[in-house]
Hints:
four-stranded antiparallel β-sheet; seven-stranded mixed β-sheet
Amino acid sequence: QERMVASGGGSVQSGGSLRLSCATSGYTYVNYCMAWFRQAPAKEREGVSVFCSDGRTYYTDSVKGRFAISRDNAKNTLYLQMNRLKSEDTAIYYCAASEYIVGRKFREEEYNIWGQGTQVIVSS
């Protein structure tokens, strides 16, 4: 059974950095996308960044140039390096995975495997 476990959240001051990790197990798909979503208080969950097995990466506009997504296949772990954090990055961050390379990368319904959230708090 596929499982994803997110970690790495915490509290940081504006301008600081955090690295989120998402360990995957039981995941054997060859063609896939893995993503980070986030949900801020009183807001809908939104897609942040996507890594697909074809090597392509995608970012929502608000994090371009600040965040970097990567995957270590040997460790079966997805990462999100977050730099120059802003207060508006405060949210619960979720990792997710699909069984194929999805078309609409930031659409939640494309992903059927989800990890639990990890809280990120950025104070100004």
